[in-house]
Amino acid sequence: MSEENIFLFVPNIIGYGRIVLAIIAFYFLPTNYIVASTCYVISALLDALDGHAARYFKQGTKFGAMLDQLTDRCGTMGLVTVLAHLYPKYMFPLIMSMVIDISCHWIYVHSVILQGKQSHKFVDMSENPIMSIYYTNRPVLFTMCLGYEAFFNALYLLYFTEGPTIIGLSLFRIIIYLSAPIMIVKTFISLLHCVVAAKNMAIIDVNERKDALKKEK
Length: 217
Fold this sequence. Notes:
- The chain has helices at residues 10-28, 33-56, 62-86, 91-115, 129-136, 138-160, 171-216, and strands spanning 165-166, 169-170.
- The chain is an all-alpha fold and 217 residues long.
- The protein has 2 domains: 1-86, no CATH class; 115-217, no CATH class.
- A two-stranded antiparallel sheet has the order 1-2.
- A hairpin with a 2-residue loop joins strand 1 (165-166) and strand 2 (169-170).
- The longest helix is centred in the last third of the chain and has 46 residues, at 171-216.
- The relative contact order is 0.10.
- The model is unreliable at 117-121 (pLDDT under 50).
């Protein structure tokens, strides 16, 4: 039996496509909002498709999970970086949003890797009722991610155009008003990830120090 080429798995190929679309979006963000927004939105929507592909073809991999995570974080980071320049008045909260998104996801993923085999000593996110729903209910997770991305994308589009109107109100403004609470909740959840990750890493440190002291004796 020939060795599988993980890099050519269907969900990973979709991931490469997402990266290409994100790079195109980054290039056009300052100059062409139609091309930039279209590429960004398609890249974000493909995030759901690669997950389905991984389950359908049974091609879930650690590489694919990390590729997906990095594409998500870097995609949002690129958009928010441009937003900070388009809306200099709100640069500080936009930068803080980007820092929270990147740092909290990084420390959480890193802590999970360090844990290795799961232990009852580690803090389990699923024990929290809010996080249990967040992790186990796919429609809820999809809505949270969609709302988060919709907020920043609508804010970007609003800088260039009011867009179509509904009952005399800009569609992009409506999206911002509806998605803002979701964005705030998801930011809070990211901070919760950071707290849990820090506690779990502290547990790892304590256990490692105990083992080191035992060896010294």
